[in-house]
Amino acid sequence: MADSSGSFVHAGPRVTGTGIGDAEWRARVDLAACYRLVAERGWGDLIYTHISLAVPGEPGRFLINPFGLTFDEVTASNLVKIDIDGAIIGDSPHEVNATGFVIHGAVHAAREDARCVMHLHNEAAVSVSMLKDGLLPLSQHALRFYRDLAYHRYEGLALTESEKVRLAANLGTCRAMLLHNHGSLVTGRTVAEAFCLMDMLDKACRMQLAAQATGAELVLPSAELCEKTFRQLTADPEPEGELEWPSLLRRLDRLCPDYRT
């Protein structure tokens, strides 16, 4: 069950002597768990891409992974606190990839509800981002994004100030985006919501690629049915992933409980 900060309870023991409050520690545990789950699914890209999370009760402060660590090395205590410009807050033995936070910073600044921003180079999503028609409404998983998926054209490696404005405008109120020729992005009101949306988006992309690879004629639901199913899948106003997240944490506790340290 999520608390008022958007983090989940049962976070485990906090490292003592850190000056980190309970709400921030719960947020750190959730974010570290998300990094480990991404690593487990093979969505990582060496030491690149990021998942960022707003620090509860500290406007303009965010948690992000240390630059140079793979996602399976991220723990609650080695996450780094930064400001909206990617500058490190407080003492940390780790560096951060400030350039890599530019996309995240643009989204956090534009969307108060985007407490967690996940940007990945997962292969299925990158592949679908290369297709002119993008994600098609071929599966129930894809229909979750029928009216909730944005696109942003590729403009090179580094985002300029003007591109940040365009990216935020293209995202609009959507919770997910495919960056053409580049990768995927999802936003969540909680870490759980961001992860579960990315899981669904990745599956939708993989299913589409598998179907297209057969070369057979594809079956597309009618527009009316797509609209109906999307409304059904998004009818609950509460953040998605609340039921799934505790079970995912239990799995991590069996496989790699050090993420909580």
TrEMBL record:
- Name any one Pfam family assigned in the record: Aldolase_II
Name any GO cellular component annotation.
Answer: cytoskeleton
Which domain of life does the protein's organism represent? Answer: Bacteria
**Record-level Gene Ontology MF annotations:** actin filament binding
Q: Locate the Class II aldolase/adducin N-terminal domain: which residues?
A: 29-209
* Family (UniProt): Belongs to the aldolase class II family.
Record-given protein name? Class II aldolase/adducin family protein
Q: Which organism is it from?
A: Roseomonas genomospecies 6
